[in-house]
Amino acid sequence: MGRRTFSADSYRSATQSYVPDQGPATARAEEQARRTGQLDPLVDPAGYGVIRRSLLRFEQRPDGLFELTIGTSMPVETRLDTTASMGTSVDIALRVLEQAFGLCSSVLPGYDLHMATGIFGDCVDQFVLCRPQFEMLAEKIVQQLTLMAPQRGGGGNDGEDPHYGIFGAAYLTAAYINRIDLKGYDFTISDEPARDHLEERELIRIFGSDVFDKVAANGFEIDRHNLPSTREVVQALLNRAHAFFLQVESRGYDANTTRRFWTGIYGPERVITLPRTELLPLVQAVIIGLTEGTLELEEVEGFLAMNGVSDTDAQRIVRSVSDIPIGAQAALPNYGIRPMQGDLFSSKDDLWPIGSSGTTASTHSTPVVDTHKGPDWL
């Protein structure tokens, strides 16, 4: 288990096992959600202890030491709009999943890629958010995508509610990468604005009655009577992730209004054009590669062309990403000394491997996973 990775064969096998032959990939989950009024715990934001974890993978050696099997765990969280014209986002994500994992891995050499791809809708919907676990294996990612319950219709063209998912990413995530003062990646994909504020009752409805206790246990202080604004939530997220809003072109909402809203939330350098949802793997890989320093800006157009992107779309994407914080991850002090495959740890709880020169740690702790409270493959 500790050495297994995403593969083409496991992806094909998983799609055969979990994806129905006809209809939406999530058809069974949608029917079960309508019948029971509940999400599967794997994708329920309140499920499995609420906090989503991305931790190192080890194998214990005969001498008692723990060997890092793949590399430093790298969480990449994506939340997809599934309302109205974007109702097929999960099916698209499944179709491009193999490409997404492969391309993102290619610009993250030395890391163990952990993906969590969820969906969001409106607070008027039965389910505002589906938030899965971070996973690195095809069968687990495919399974979780098919367990989503998109509401599809949405509440009309007056904005969506992805900021509850962003709240989860900011305050209800525990990742090893943050303990060594590096950052993961976070992407919100939509064609509409959101609201400017959170509501206590919605946080409780989505994440459970103990949501504020979970936030506190994860090292953050939130006043339930003075909740942060959407912009403040994003600023908190930026402390632990390189976060971006990817704007899908759509006829369903005024593009300028959408861009103005999200530019005010993320800043213009983090609002990126996504010509079509199908191009999400390419745009994510470009952003990650530029941020990590494993891809140069002058290489982007060729990278996109090599992967089948049209000249027109490639040029638009290049223009859109040209102002992102290029090299931001590579500039962080611990980038060059992050743990690598084969490093040895005295204990699974240790921050750094034996002989490492790393000394700093995040002020927010990442508790060791309790396998009784989460999926047994973590």
Provide structural commentary.
Strand 5 and strand 6 form a beta hairpin. About 3% of the residues have low confidence. It is built from 14 helices and eleven strands. It has 378 residues and is of the alpha/beta class. Helix 1 runs parallel beside helix 5, helix 4 packs parallel to helix 12 and helix 13 packs antiparallel against helix 14. It has a six-stranded mixed beta sheet, sandwiched between helices. The radius of gyration is 20 Å and the shape is globular.
What string gives the helices and strands in order? HHEEEEHHEEHHEHEHHHEHEHHHE
**SSE-based structural type:** alpha/beta
Radius of gyration: 20 Å
> How confident overall, as mean pLDDT?
92
Number of DSSP-assigned strands? 11
- Describe the biggest sheet? 6 strands, mixed
- Approximate helicity band: 25-40%
- Which band does the percent of strand residues land in? 5-15%
Distance between the termini: 10 Å
Number of helices: 14
Shape: globular
List the uncertain runs.
363-373
Strand order of the largest sheet: 6-5-4-8-9-10
Top keywords for this entry?
six-stranded mixed beta sheet; globular; alpha/beta
Would you spell out the secondary-structure blueprint of this structure?
Blueprint: H1 8-18, H2 27-36, E1 52-54, E2 58-60, E3 66-68, E4 72-81, H3 89-95, H4 97-106, E5 111-120, E6 129-130, H5 138-146, H6 163-171, E7 173-175, H7 176-179, E8 184-190, H8 200-207, H9 211-217, H10 230-238, E9 241-248, H11 255-266, E10 271-274, H12 280-292, H13 297-306, H14 311-321, E11 344-345
Parallel strand pairs: 1-7, 4-5, 4-8, 8-9, 9-10
Antiparallel strand pairs: 2-3, 3-11, 5-6
Helix pairs in contact: 1-5, 4-12, 6-10, 13-14
